[in-house]
Specification:
about 575 residues; six-stranded mixed beta sheet; 17 strands; about 15% strand; globular
Chain lengths: ~575, ~575
């Protein structure tokens, strides 16, 4: 089951089907993408050059009806960080991959001519097709053109104009069950890697596929039921996430003093109540129309933390509107207007860029005096410059670090070249330890700690808390699960039970945990070979020296503290 | 003699005079600037932040009449490379420092307000003076305003608008004996460091200074005479450099296939005869007027490799017009027009940017399709965008690596973030080894090998040749000597003799060579602590894989070869 690998060479325009290597049998999602990156990509490879590869993987439950199990992991050497990258997304593509019985798609080579392609995979074959007509079209239009051609039920992973232009904020986006291509493998500039290969889209057409049943059918059914019951009986996964979605985090971080505000200069936002989960919920509710406070981004997800955010007339402005975007394009820019955030979010989605990195870059540009903080209109115009591909737009679309360098700004909230997501590091030191030490660069999905039982402003215990979070999230990433299941997992041994029932194996939770440690250590080793040292495992200087006014604290975990973090 | 250190704190606006530390007594120029960088700047310091320092040093012969001994070394942590940087320049400032009996100026702290200063040093005191009226003025106008205020005989080290804006290509420029502020500490973005400190100029007023005589007067006089006679009896230093200047290199590199052409895509330029030394010489000669084929950039230099390049009416277009600029703004852009190069050179000088880095960046922009190769008019307009500080101009003024990232270009000729100078690495592999291994990043002044007795297209012997060149140039850099003296030094022991006679010491050449090895090793160690590894000691990928069409060779010295290079 799930033992096919599709290998595509964009230079030679060949597509091969291979058998998954024996050594990779237990790997999926991040554990598989990172392993293939480690095994196949030279650490010195130029990220936009011929030796980088794009590795697309699904998890071991892909294609099944296990809730929240359809994350699509994409790996490569990141053009943004220069290190290894895994970025995963919701949507329906991983589910389709599972139904097509494919564990990984490996895309090799680059093209420097003017020919562009898409990779089409159906039950009979996998092939490349010329796709020049999709060039320079937004992701929503691209998706529509592909639905017209292949039907509405296909899974899609595609890039927008940003990826075609190899911009460092470019992501890869996947469609949701309603056809909206807005589920982003956002971080690390993976869209630029796909663009360098002149691959515009992967079309996953599972029509006629018959998915193999689980090896131990009854056991699997029972374990799925238990897993779902856990999700349905846990307050976060059963009530808070479905009602408020990821935005539920905003009151938590704001009260902690960890809500990034005005280019991460403080952690508490005066306008928080205008952009928090309650306001989001009420706005959607009161506007009605196409709006929805709850929504599944993948087939069969029972958490349904997503939403559809409508305008005053009830017409969809964007779906979803998530916590990270609300922070980075909201509080981080001193903008307390959900409509303004939603409109910028849509532009990001359509152009194909990561809202976190772009939000960080705009914050840095504001610090550099390019436009003022707090001006939603000017921020929107700046986003329009990104979409119009002006030179200023290109700077922003090259991410926070480049924006800082171009405008001579020294306070750039980034680690290893990647902008920070929605957690102010001096106000939430466990997540900050993750920012500093994760092979991924600043990334909340690499190990977030706001719910850890620790005093978030103090240094004590943060290394252990971050390590646990990093290992924990690697476990869900390695199985293609959404990290939102976390609170609904009283005993993670059920994950081994589910795998064993589906595949007829006898893995233990310890086996899975070993896979996670191995994955993190491989990632670290890749980075080490690519030129990363402990000098890169730290936050920007100003976070150690300037207090977060909301907490009165600086970041105070130093090299000697952080070096204790081993996986 | 030369035992004062001026220490300036730009945050507290204090200026102190200190005694040179005992441990630094034998150090000057690069050996002193790099030592102070190593001892005083934390390797993790944000280059534009409060912990970086600007270290200005002269050489042990500064203030004397030893020919070609007035190079000014400036050190810091580079905002361009993130590593240690020493960049030295001609002009009169080091000579003035010598006459003021100052070995080093250490500038600490930054300012983030709107106050700008200059540091004035005369025989009685050193002090900061408000200099807001100089803001946003070109270097030529700034210099004129300072001459108006302090007289025409002052030495100057100053930044242009580029430094004020903290742009990564910003240099620091020094005036020549004719008052032109066009002698650049160009590389590594040191002007941005000076700009971050809100220090616009250092004014060195030596009026009334009486220079201490050499300790062993007769011996010194005799050794100076011998040194000068060597220079005057060596063909390069006596004839070729005075007549043709640095441009004499162009025929050498072009015939080797090592003249950077069209963004380093090849090493031979069809239009070479329109920009070579003979054409330069004849153009200056035939135009007459203010033009001059030979010119001293420092008082008392008998090599006089500089020039004054006039327009058709005999009016100065720029002085000097040097080999590196002719390459990077000429052949590298496929432009075979000296007037076009000279005009861009002037714009660079006035705005305060490094012609090498800007030339590299424009080459990369041409590769990215921003403007076509070979179009002098468009290249000039692009330079005008730099000066006008448009967003496109800012991208170019942020250097080759950022230009490459913003425009999605993978063939960026740089090492450690710094663009390559006028030597194509596959055509001149010794210099390429220097590019790869020097702590300075891609830099011909760190160890150039076109005159080494080796087959430049083959890998054999290049590590030894580069090592010798790196040690050799460190010796002249460590003494404030110009590297153009190299051919006129049949026995380098004379350098120890000169020092001993001036200072009354008993150093041997071996002592000096140990200082050079120590300097290079300290620089490497600083970089290592700052996060550099062997992964950074290499050329961009494409130089290993794509042939230089002029030589049919790729760069083929790998990690195992380069790791043999120890100082």
């Amino acid at each position: 089951m799930l033992d096919k690998v599709i290998r595509v060479d964009m230079a030679g325009l060949t597509v091969k089907e291979e058998q998954l290597a024996e050594a990779y049998q237990r790997l999926s999602g991040r554990s598989l993408s990172s392993r293939i990156v480690f095994d196949e990509i030279p650490p010195y490879a130029e990220p936009l050059g011929p030796h980088n590869k794009l590795i697309v993987t699904c998890g071991l439950f892909a294609g099944s009806m296990v809730s929240s199990s359809g994350r699509l992991s994409i790996g490569a050497k990141s053009p943004l960080t220069g290190g290894i990258k895994e970025s995963n997304a919701g949507g329906i593509s991983a589910h389709k991959m599972g139904r097509l019985d494919i564990r990984a798609i490996v895309v090799e080579g680059i093209r420097e001519d003017d020919k562009w392609f898409m990779l089409v995979i159906n039950k009979d074959k996998a092939y490349l097709e010329e796709a020049g007509y999709l060039i320079n079209k937004g992701t929503y239009e691209k998706a529509q053109l592909l639905y017209n051609k292949y039907g509405k039920k296909i899974g899609l992973a595609l890039v927008g104009p940003a990826g075609e232009k190899r911009l460092l904020t470019a992501g890869i986006t996947n469609n949701d069950p309603d056809g909206a291509p807005s589920r982003y493998n956002g971080r690390g500039g993976l869209g630029a890697v796909m663009g360098s290969k002149h691959l515009l889209a992967i079309v996953l057409d599972d029509a006629g596929c018959r998915v193999k049943g689980p090896v131990r059918k009854e056991e699997f059914k029972e374990k799925v039921k238990e897993f779902h019951q856990n999700l349905l009986s846990t307050p976060q996964t059963a009530e808070i996430f479905p009602k408020y979605g990821t935005a539920a985090m905003l009151n938590v971080t704001n009260s902690l003093g960890a809500l990034p505000t005005r280019n991460f200069s403080t952690g508490r936002f005066q306008g928080a109540e205008n952009i928090n989960a309650e306001r989001l919920y009420e706005t959607i509710k009161s506007r009605g129309g196409e709006g929805s406070t709850t929504h599944s981004c993948m087939p069969g997800c029972i958490i349904r933390c997503s939403n559809v955010y409508p305008d005053r007339d009830g017409k969809t402005l964007v779906s979803p509107l998530e916590y990270e975007t609300i922070c980075l394009l909201g509080s981080n820019l001193d903008i307390d207007d959900l409509d303004a955030v939603a409109k910028m979010n849509y532009l990001c989605n359509d152009y194909g860029v990561d809202t976190i990195e772009v939000g960080c870059a705009i914050g840095v540009a504001m610090e550099g005096g390019v436009i003022p903080f707090g001006d939603g209109k000017e921020a929107h115009e700046l986003m329009e410059e990104v979409v119009a591909d002006t030179h200023l737009g290109r700077i922003i679309a090259s991410g926070s670090v480049i924006t800082g360098k171009v405008f001579g700004v020294r306070r750039v909230p980034s680690v290893k070249g990647q902008g920070m997501p929605g957690y102010e590091p001096r106000g939430l030191k466990g997540t900050a330890v993750t920012y500093a030490t994760s092979p991924m660069g600043a990334d909340h999905t690499a190990g977030n700690t706001p719910r850890a039982n620790v005093k978030h402003h103090l240094k004590e215990g943060q290394v252990a808390v971050s390590r646990n979070a990093q290992l924990g999230v690697t476990l869900v990433d390695a199985l293609g699960l959404c990290m939102m299941v976390g609170p609904g997992l009283p005993d993670r041994a059920i994950l081994a039970d589910l795998i064993n029932a589906r595949f007829g194996w006898n893995l233990t939770l310890e086996d899975l945990e070993k896979i996670c440690r191995d994955t993190l250590n491989l990632e670290k080793e890749f980075n080490s070979k690519a030129g990363f040292t402990k000098a890169h495992d730290r936050l920007p200087e100003h976070f150690y020296e300037e207090e977060n006014p909301a907490t009165g604290t600086v970041f105070d975990l130093y090299e000697e503290d952080l070096s204790e973090l081993v996986y």
